[in-house]
Amino acid sequence: MATITAPTSQKAAPPGILTHPATRKLLTLAALAAILAPIAATQWPGATWPTALTVDVSEPLGKASDWIIDNRDTHPLFLYFFGHVSNVVVIAVRAVYLALLAVGWAGVTAIGALVAWRVAGVKLAAGTAAAFLACGLLGMWVPTMQTLALMVVAVLASVAVGALLGLAAGLSDRMDRVLRPVLDTMQVLPAFAYLLPVVLVFGIGVPAAVLATVVYAAPPMARLTSLGLRGADKEVLEAVESLGTTARQRLLTARIPLARKELLLGVNQTIMMALSMAVIASVIGAGGLGDRVYQALASVDVGAALAAGIPIVLLAVVLDRVTGAAGERLGEAGKSPVTWLYALVVAAAVALAGRLAGFLDWPDGWELNIAEPVNRAVDWMTAHLYSGVPVVGGTADWAAHFTSWVLNPLRDGLQWLPWWSVLLIVAALAWLIGTWRTALTAVLAMAAIGVLGVWKPSLDTLSQVLAAVAVTLVIGFATGVAAARSDRVERLLRPVLDVFQTMPQFVYLIPVVALFGVGRAPAVAAAVVYALPAVVRITAQGLRQVDPAAMESARSLGATGGQQLRQVQLPLARPALLLAVNQGVVLVLAVVIIGGLVGGGALGYQVVFGLAQGDLATGLVAGAAIVCLGLMLDRVTQPTERRTTKKGA
Amino acid sequence: MSTTDKDTTTAAATDTVTERPPVFSVDGLWKVFGPKADRVPADPDLAALSPAELRSRTGCTAAVADVSFDVRKGEVFVVMGLSGSGKSTLVRCLTRLIEPTAGSIAIDGEDVRAMDRTRLRALRRHRAAMVFQHFGLLPHRTVLDNVAYGLEVQGMGRAERRERAAAVVAKVGLEGLEQRRPGQLSGGQRQRVGLARALAVDPEVLLFDEPFSALDPLIRRDMQEEVVRLHREEGRTMVFITHDLQEALKLGDRIALMRDGRVVQLGTPEEIVGSPADDYVREFVRDVPREQVLTVRTAMRPAANADEAGTGPAIRPDATVSEAIEAVARAGSPARVMTEGRCLGVVDATDLLSVVAGTDPAAGSDVAAGSRAAGAARVGAAAPATRRKPTTPAEPTTEEPA
Description:
heterodimer, A: mainly alpha, MetI-like fold, 27 helices, 0% strand, globular, B: alpha/beta, four-stranded antiparallel beta sheet
């Protein structure tokens, strides 16, 4: 990688290793380290973060938490602001939930299918109906409706908040400068980091779950709204202005309609993020499907977890496809409102008929109990596949080996390293890939972890992340290269990737628990599976989008396939590959943290523990450490382009 | 248009054009991009600098530098220049889509730069409409609604604006495509929509910003003829920006040739081709077939004797040289340049050939003097549109150079 950014200086300097910019950066850093490291090492000896440099925040945090709990019913801030917010959320969710129940399963299925038909066509309408019926069949109708009600409220709020923020950022440069870094950062933080602050204010329950979901799901809407407003064709806007429009007319008749694609994409992403978070938020009292999965995982009841997990997946796929199709159909001629009216009338008729026929609650006799057979299968697997399978070993053996041969040495190694050398490594990596600014942010984030006093568990989490990222990148790059070179492989992979990319993070925990039991290895496995699709896709796209002229000229010079890949495709696709690494790291971190629920330990466990024990201080500190870790990992892997002027490579 | 009438003489036409009130009157206009742009027009030393010097001294770029001209009612005023010459900035300054740095712009005597937002909006809504290079259509609206957009902005009711839009759509030849979206149209059709949208508000002036540059050559010719036709039918004032010399010569009654933000020559196509103001313009027009642009007026000499003044085929003074060549070749004798039964002079084969060869010093200097005078007075000299309607006895051969 280093060779392609060779210096292009006009001077007659020898092309020695000293003039290379990367070397220069490293030398500067080495000089800095030579001065600072001995001081640090003598002043605060030992490998772990020195206690002299930590600040105990758990006590004030605990006090704050206690104060909030004591004053929640009396302090005016809660009475007149948070109290109202909380009430409105509860009432809204309750109202939607009751409405869904009142329409009945037949009505909900019919309305869902008709909406899908109008916006996305017959095939997706059938899929939507089938998905709803499957939820009923699995005995999950009521939890599904609970999740759906929470989703509806959270998505509406997220879209409203996101669109308003996006409008502000799209119309005002100053707002954009303020909001953009905040939104960028929020995008890379794991979902778990948002839970604790919300719980601190609202306590465990539906309002906290909804608000955490809104905070998590609104950023993509805001980003895409702003992007759409800013990306509008300049000449169209100029033409509209030349006709003497007022600013309001320009916004309503041109800028917003021109941004429709981005707006719909924003809605789509917001829905997917909201679903993902609504499921995770079961940890803080969201109820519904996520809660069923959470409870089942807590007692390692894979069958029950799967019964609740399948509706989540179905919901995710249906919602994604229907909203996605709505975006793609934009260019086509608008449909007359009359057909919508027909659809509405039909849906109302079906709902009414269902009500009259008594099809409100899903009939018990129609439920299919899959928990038991699945559990039997899992038991069989435990008995036969976990260990002692000739030649290949067993899944539990693999997990144990992975833990003892990879995870443990990695963790111990990281914890053995002196703390200042960890900072030095972070600085070197971030500076090599990015600018001194990103390096500084990364180092400060890492130092903040130490100051918070969670150095050891953070390095434990970091070791899991590193192991998972390594596995992800090896498999992901290999698959991506294969998909880029062969159309057949790509065709085979595409539907798989599509489904995997729409599934909420939480769901990935179910199969790994079935296969590997609980512990750190399954957490890593879930993270790999979750991050893999994005890495594969970005890699394949990056390789495929390499300038065809460059490829053609390489072929015309008689380069072999391998030479083309090494000498043309990989160097030219470098930005895409770096992006794949960045995405891989961010996604892996999100799931490794959630892995705390299935024995992953470390920071994720501290968050769960804090929630379960009501020890919010511990949880908040761990949450802050997660934020810092996410920030550090993102900055370390962030390519330069965003801030500095582009170099002609 | 009355000036294209067969019986009107060139001299009379010239008078009517120069007498007409200016629609746009631009004086000393500057648009400078960069830090503290205001000081550049104000300081005579800075104002006199070349673009490179200006940039190195101040970091500013003068897109439009001290430009003055009048656009007379009913004429097609072409601003021509290569990319980066400031012509697109200039046309945007006319309705303050780009705010000028210095100078004055008046429309019908009213100061555009002094207008408040409401007045400016009214100007854009009713008096000057623009056609853009990349069309600038709204992709989510049908053709009809795109054309009606300007009327909608004015607050006109739905039924009325659609009715008017439908009439304009028919005028530009898009009947039957009213319900299509811009994405379903070809480039030429899209630009017809752009043209229709500008026409729909019935503006006093049409501004064209390189409207046909993005089109195929054949479609471009169709669209140019469409503009000629519209101009002939309605006589609307047009300001036309282009980088294409052929297009400028074909459409323009007068052409302002721009370079580095300044107007290097302003005159009729004949003046530009016949007597370039400097080497830059000469290089620019070098490949133009002179005989198809220059008129016999530039080639004729006084009749040597009464015999010469009394015989030979008669041609009008505004006939092109190539038409005269045909007439002389048919008759085998010198031709007489006649107006209102009076013989202005004669042209023979030698005179005509020297024009084609570009070796006629007398004619060249003659027109050059006229051009300079016209430039100083900032008025046009020749009748608009007459070249497009050849009225000589000889068969019209003024199909534009390929």
